[in-house]
Amino acid sequence: MAPDRPNILFLMSDEHRPTVAGFAGDDVVRTPVLDDLASSGVVFNHCYTPSPITVPTMVCLNAGQLPKTCHCEGWFDLAPGHMTFARLFARYAYETVACGRLMHQGPDIMQGWTRRIGDDIMTRDNYIE
């Protein structure tokens, strides 16, 4: 029986050459888990970043907007309560889990994620005790 709704895994690699994966045709690099996911899912082969800077790119991706539209042209986060794809999925009772550096900061640090795995760059103390 098919599930009522699909499970969605959105995987993004920052600073990763797109051809360096087995599913992308590289015959040296071994990526069996990514290869398996790619064979049963959707791979976006022709994607372009809206910004050459990491933080605006990640913010734009989460908001589904361009940097100028969501006011994140520098090291800025979205305004509190801004609609994000995590909020949209959570609205429909999906558990939205984020893992890795999302660069969220300020009063709306979760931005719709119902759970975080690991720390974000802004949520930990970088000083050695």
Fold and architecture overview:
- This protein is mainly alpha-helical.
- It folds into 2 domains: about 45 residues, no CATH class; about 80 residues, no CATH class.
- The protein is about 25% helix and about 5% strand.
- The chain has a two-stranded parallel ribbon with strand order 1-2.
- The longest helix is centred in the middle third of the chain and has 10 residues.
- It is globular.
- The N and C termini lie far apart (about 55 Å).
- The mean pLDDT is about 80.
Write a brief caption for the model.
It is built from four helices and two strands; from the N terminus they run ααααββ. It is mostly helical and 129 residues long.
**Biggest pleated-sheet summary:** 2 strands, parallel
CA-based shape: globular
Question: What's the N-to-C terminus distance?
Answer: 54 Å
- Cα Rg: 17 Å
**Structural class designation:** mainly alpha
Poorly predicted parts? none
Q: How many β strands by DSSP?
A: 2
Helix count, per DSSP? 4
What's the arrangement of strands in the largest beta sheet?
A: 1-2
Query: Helix and strand string, N-terminal first?
Result: HHHHEE
Mean pLDDT score, rounded? 82
